[in-house]
Design brief:
Helices cover 43% and strands 16% of the residues. By secondary structure, it is α/β, with parallel strands linked by helices. The protein folds into two domains: 159 residues, Periplasmic binding protein-like II (D-Maltodextrin-Binding Protein, domain 2), CATH 3.40.190; 137 residues, D-Maltodextrin-Binding Protein, domain 2, CATH 3.40.190.10. The N terminus is likely disordered.
């Protein structure tokens, strides 16, 4: 009996130890790590909840984590996905890999930035822009429309992030959605034949301009702001997609279907889509612009002119874009 009692006590202690393990939530995020950590640290300090964070490398932004979520579908490791873009999030939702949840904190988020089936919520936009050094490239020498980048005089001095990844993938997919297949394939061919430089990522493209390897680059606003903060002589220009505006790309948040910590996942999602986080992101070097009009008024911010192509149509063209890029640009 003493031996049995000892064994039983050991089992109970082990079980008790499992119960006493601090509750936590697992977050996969492709938001730039420095900015994501600021937000997560604030959440942890406020709630006391531990958050395990897994990020992605610049060159594989979003794509690597999306592949991981798909590969783990039978037994998800992550609870929440916070993406630096929206289009892959829409695809994950369509594949049944995100759970429906209507966060109360997002009640004032405009319908354009909320999934009608409540599988994702989008906040904090960045814009696709052209970056240049005004000391070497006068503003009057810049193109005014995105399609003009494929002209030889522009392509030869351009750095363009690999369109198989990150926000550049979504940008080219938006071209397919708005321009159609023939025009967009001609655009990609023009970049290739004109000698456009393919960079590993948006920040790599920015560094090409800073180093003088390129005169102009396509990138996101946050990469320009960060470079300026570090002392680079860079400016940006909002180019027209052809319908009066550039592409605005929000971050997006969703709960992984079948996640292990659904209650905690909802708590984290409530925070990530809140006005507080939009305010935090606007105050970081990323300078994401809130989707909430009242918050933009409070912070004296304006949205740049935006293309009206629906986000869902961009997602529709992600696969078409990747195929064309492999056929034409990345061999």
């Amino acid at each position: 009996m003493p031996v049995l009692a000892c064994l039983l006590a050991g089992v109970l202690a082990a079980v008790g130890g499992c119960k006493e393990r601090p509750e936590h939530v697992v977050l996969y995020t492709s938001v730039d790590e420095a900015f994501a950590r600021q937000v997560v640290d604030r959440f942890k300090k406020t709630t006391g909840l531990d958050v395990e964070v897994l990020t992605d490398a610049e060159a594989g932004k979003t794509t690597g984590l999306v592949k991981r979520i798909r590969s783990e579908a039978a037994g998800p490791r992550a609870d929440v996905f916070w993406s630096s873009e929206l289009f892959n999030t829409i695809l994950l939702a369509r594949e049944g890999l995100l759970e429906a949840y209507d966060p109360p904190a997002a009640a004032d988020v405009p319908p354009r930035y909320r999934d009608p089936e409540h599988r994702w919520t989008a906040v904090g936009v960045r814009a696709r822009v052209l970056a240049f050094d005004p000391e070497r490239t006068p503003p009057e020498a810049l193109p005014t429309h995105w399609e003009m980048l494929s002209q030889p005089r522009n392509a030869s001095r351009l750095s363009f992030a690999n369109p198989l990844f990150g926000t550049t993938h979504g940008h080219v997919a938006a071209m397919f959605a708005l321009w159609g297949e023939e025009r967009t394939r001609d655009f990609l061919t023009g970049l290739r034949d004109g000698g456009g430089r393919i960079a590993a990522g948006n920040m790599s493209a920015v560094r090409d301009v800073i180093a003088g390897r390129a005169a102009i680059c396509a990138t996101d606003t946050d990469d320009v702001w960060v470079a300026q903060r570090e002392g680079a002589s860079l400016e940006l220009r909002y180019l027209d997609m052809g319908d009066g505006g550039t592409l605005l790309i929000p971050t997006s948040v969703g709960i992984i279907a079948g996640c292990r910590h659904p209650k905690r996942a909802r708590e984290l999602v409530d925070y990530l889509v809140s006005a507080e986080v939009e305010r935090l992101l606007a105050g970081t070097d990323s300078r994401n612009i809130p989707v909430r009009a009242a918050l933009r008024t409070e912070l004296n911010l304006e949205l740049p002119p935006e293309t009206q192509v629906p986000f869902e149509r961009v997602a529709d063209n992600m696969a078409t874009s990747a195929t064309a890029v492999r056929d034409i640009l990345i061999r």
